[in-house]
Amino acid sequence: MCKLNKFQKFFYLIFIFLLVSVLNSCGTLSKISSGTKNQITDIFKKKKKHEEETLDDLLREAEKAFAKGHYNIAYETYKKIRNRYPGTPQSILAELRMADCKFWEGEYLEAISIYEEFEKFYPNNEAIPYVIYQIGTCYYKLKLSYDRDQTYTKKAIETYERLLQNFPQNPYKLEVKKRIRELKELLAKHEFYVAKFYYRIKYYRAAYGRLLYIINNYPDTYTCQKAKKLVLTYYKKALLETKELREGKKKDFWGEKVP
Question: Judging by beta carbons within 10 Å of its beta carbon (0-12, 13-18, 19+), is residue 208 exposed, middle or buried?
């Protein structure tokens, strides 16, 4: 039994050797190898095509979610596109749309961060005017009432003015100019509010200084006209306060005597 098995093994080896020799002489092995290579190439082509279809599918999915107002879902899908397909036009679009998602969700500070990052990495992109406009609009949305801090108001004006300076023919210029006027009116109202506060607590020099600031910096505002009506009264009070401070009859805002 053992001898028979050895014989069979020997027979099979001879058979395989003869078969390879015949196939090689006929070019069959070369054809098989070529066919295998073509099959592998086709597989990679199909895989690449599948990946391209997947990218398109992701983009359609993201845009559909965005259009329906499902900004959180859209954001995550755009993020996948950005991470999986870096350097593609779709990934650049996805980065911009991620910022848009945050904007429409009302998460303006996060939106600003993404918009600014986009502007930093793609300064020559055709969407830059839109990006700057959106940054300004985020600050515009974050602005507070005239009796509160006006940091965001000032940042909105700075951003909008940068847009007008760098891209004077941008499609948002009419709206931007309108908003700048509105924002400057808000700043003037804030200064007027502070001036009246100082006047109420009888620090007339500070109040008068605020009115002058409005007149010099926001001459085209409605609030400036109100300031002009009070400036003479405030000036007279400021002179009187200066005299009292000099004579030591009154201390300044910090409780110190004026030298």
Answer: buried
* Residue of 86, 64, 87, 84 whose CA lies nearest to 74: 64
Long-range contacts of 210-215 (CB under 8 A, 24+ apart): 214/188
Are the C-beta atoms of 119 and 136 separated by less than 8 Å? no
pTM: 0.76
Torsional sign, CA 95, 97, 98, 99 = positive
Q: What is the DSSP string of 38-73?
A: HHHHHHHHHHHHHHHHHHHHHHHHHHHHHHTT-HHH
Residue 180 near residue 157 (C-beta atoms within 8 A)? yes
Q: What are the tens digits of pLDDT across the range 105-127? A: 999 999 999 999 999 999 999 99
Q: Report residues of the chain scoring pLDDT below 70.
A: 1-53, 251-259
Q: Which two tokens stand for residue 222?
A: 């409605």
Task: Please identify which residue in the block is written with the tokens 């002489």.
Answer: 25
Kindly state the DSSP code that residue 94 receives in the 8-state scheme: H
Instruction: Determine the pLDDT at residue 245.
Output: 84
Which residues are within 8 A (CB) of 130 and not within 5 positions of it... i.e. 6 or more apart? 172
